[in-house]
């Protein structure tokens, strides 16, 4: 019985030792925010995506990334505290501002958020002076593009293209 007990103790010590080595040498967790910015059925390039962290990690302000030609963004954080949350916003020239999106704590390791944008309305065309006497005129009708039912295909940024940030421990 002593040999079996010693054998089991050796196996148990190996398992516990292996777990301890893994636990103390594992890399810190990486939290990735990624997604796409699009308008209608086309991606929006050069849109500014901001991730503003809340909780213990939110003291340094928002972190920004610019979308690529496929409308994709990717921001990676290493070492976020467990109580962190985030608010994502997007702005792009020629488009209306979006409503900020909140992601509550605890954050998952992979967070995917897409942002549909609406184009700014075209300014009304100037009315040329009329040679006829003033009178009732027909209202000007501007063509309206119907909303598209197709969302463009998501082509993610590569991990090498991501904006990477390490959150200092407090």
SSE blueprint:
Layout lengths: L1 H24 L4 E10 L2 E2 L4 E7 L8 E4 L5 E7 L6 E7 L9 E3 L6 E3 L2 E2 L46 E4 L4
Parallel strand pairs: 1-8, 1-9, 5-10
Antiparallel strand pairs: 1-2, 1-5, 3-4, 3-6, 6-7
Give a structural overview.
The structure is a single chain. The protein has one helix spanning 2-25; strands at residues 30-39, 42-43, 48-54, 63-66, 72-78, 85-91, 101-103, 110-112, 115-116, 163-166. The model has no long low-confidence stretch (mean pLDDT 81). The chain is elongated, with a radius of gyration of 27 Å. It is an alpha/beta fold. Strands 1, 2, 5, 8, 9 and 10 form a 6-stranded mixed beta sheet that branches. A 4-stranded antiparallel beta sheet has the order 4-3-6-7, with no helix packed on it.
Estimated helix fraction: 10-25%
Question: H/E element string?
Answer: HEEEEEEEEEE
Question: What profile does the largest beta sheet have?
Answer: 6 strands, mixed
Compute the average pLDDT: 81
Structural class: alpha/beta
The count of β-strands is 10
For the terminal residues, how far apart are their CA atoms? 51 Å
Proportion of strand residues: 25-35%
**Which segments are poorly predicted (pLDDT under 50) over 5 or more consecutive residues?**
none
Rounded to an integer in angstroms, the radius of gyration calculated over CA atoms is 27 Å
**Tally of DSSP helical segments:** 1
Principal-axes shape call:
elongated
């Amino acid at each position: 019985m002593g040999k079996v007990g010693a054998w089991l103790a050796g196996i148990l010590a190996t398992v516990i030792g292996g777990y301890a080595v893994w636990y103390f040498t594992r890399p810190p967790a990486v939290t990735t925010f990624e997604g796409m910015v699009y308008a209608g059925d086309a991606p929006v390039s050069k849109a500014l995506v901001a991730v503003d962290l809340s909780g213990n990690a939110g003291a340094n302000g928002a972190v920004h990334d610019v979308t690529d030609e496929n409308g994709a963004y990717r921001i990676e954080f290493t070492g976020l505290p467990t109580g962190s949350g985030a608010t994502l916003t997007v702005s792009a020239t020629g488009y209306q501002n979006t409503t900020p999106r909140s992601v509550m704590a605890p954050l998952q390791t992979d967070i995917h958020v897409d942002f549909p944008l609406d184009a700014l309305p075209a300014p009304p065309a100037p009315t040329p002076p009329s040679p006829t006497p003033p009178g009732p005129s027909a209202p000007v009708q501007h063509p309206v593009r119907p909303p598209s039912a197709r969302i463009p295909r998501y082509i993610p940024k590569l991990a090498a293209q991501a904006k990477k940030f390490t959150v200092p421990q407090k």
